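Whiteboard transcription, Tuesday session. T.W. wrote the structure tokens on the left side:
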């Protein structure tokens, strides 16, 4: 649901409960995602939104009807996800409007959705491969996909890219949709203002991390704002957190960044990893303040290491949470975010 008037901008920051919940004021004193480019694969992005100006690069389209560069948003969803990653606000001291987790990161927009919320596998595959070629480091997917995207996602992971995916918004289906169930993918669930798992968040063995995802206010198309609920916003939030952590600790590999995020998460639910909260709730301030590998990190176990050999679509059902390993990966300067869920958003997202 979009907030239809830019006149709401002055109260938007107050309505972004995740800003205080995640203590972004403290986090931004440590890192704001400098030097990291996040590619958002979604419905396109409005580069002229006052809270995103200067942060949106020229991207590309893999669907028809767009400008060819990822600019322009058919329904506001992509601009909302970009805002959760890298919105910097506007006005005096940038105190008005939307604020993201990594306000000095850059966004590479990839338009892969025409507004239906469904991504064709071939288009998704092309988008992922092209994003990696352009130096993408994190991919976050919030539209549905199929097995045709499996191999490109595995290639991306092998190239040192973090793939972030929502677990989906249909818990009654009792399974996590693609690509959240794929080996090596960082699958993200949603929590409410009370810190508890959201009703919309799918449970399952692939859940790795949870983050705020209920009544999340962010930017939208045409300079407006939107409020949404589901695992799409929680995924964008985790992707922004990854950008901030990687900017702070650029020596880390992709698997080490994921490992650090899960080890510094707040354990919730059943002690240790569980199917609702994964390894726990995102704690960005702790992740930024804790040296990677430090004994001060939580004792929450990490997931099993990713296999060296290629996986197949048939293997995806055996993915037990996040596959985290300390492997060699070449660090490049771009993070791609593609936001995926079994159903991209709940009716209010």
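and on the right, the sequence the group agreed on:
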């Amino acid at each position: 649901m979009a907030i239809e008037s830019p006149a709401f901008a002055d109260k938007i920051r107050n309505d972004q409960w995740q800003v205080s919940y995640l203590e972004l004021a403290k986090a931004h004193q440590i890192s704001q995602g400098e030097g990291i480019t996040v590619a958002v694969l979604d419905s396109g992005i409005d580069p002229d939104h006052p809270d995103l100006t200067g942060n949106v690069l020229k991207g590309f389209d893999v669907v028809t009807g767009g400008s060819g560069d990822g600019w322009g948003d058919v329904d506001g969803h992509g601009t909302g996800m970009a805002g959760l990653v890298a919105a910097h606000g506007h006005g005096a001291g940038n105190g008005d409007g939307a604020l993201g987790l990594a306000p000095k990161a850059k966004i590479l927009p990839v338009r892969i959705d025409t507004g239906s919320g469904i991504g064709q596998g071939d288009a998704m595959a092309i988008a992922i491969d092209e994003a990696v070629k352009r130096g993408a480091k994190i991919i976050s997917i919030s539209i549905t996909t199929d097995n045709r995207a499996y191999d490109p996602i595995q290639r991306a992971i092998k190239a040192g890219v973090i793939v972030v995916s929502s677990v989906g918004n249909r818990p009654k289906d009792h399974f996590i949709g693609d690509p959240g169930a794929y080996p090596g993918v960082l699958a993200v669930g949603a929590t409410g203002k009370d810190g508890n798992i959201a009703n919309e968040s799918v449970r399952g063995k692939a859940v790795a991390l949870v983050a705020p995802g209920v009544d999340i206010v962010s930017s939208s198309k045409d300079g407006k704002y939107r409020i949404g609920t589901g695992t799409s916003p929680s995924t964008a939030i985790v992707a922004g957190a990854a950008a901030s952590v990687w900017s702070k600790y650029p020596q880390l590999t992709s698997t080490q960044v994921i490992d650090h995020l899960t080890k510094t998460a707040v354990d919730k639910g059943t002690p240790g990893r569980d199917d609702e909260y994964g390894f726990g709730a995102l704690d960005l301030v702790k992740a930024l303040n804790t040296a990677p590998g430090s004994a001060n990190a939580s004792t929450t176990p990490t997931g099993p290491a990713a296999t060296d050999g290629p996986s197949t679509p048939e293997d995806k059902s055996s993915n037990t949470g996040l596959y985290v390993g300390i492997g060699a990966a070449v660090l490049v300067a771009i993070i791609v975010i593609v936001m995926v869920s079994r159903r991209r958003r709940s009716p209010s997202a």
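Someone added at the bottom: The two ends are 6 Å apart (CA to CA).
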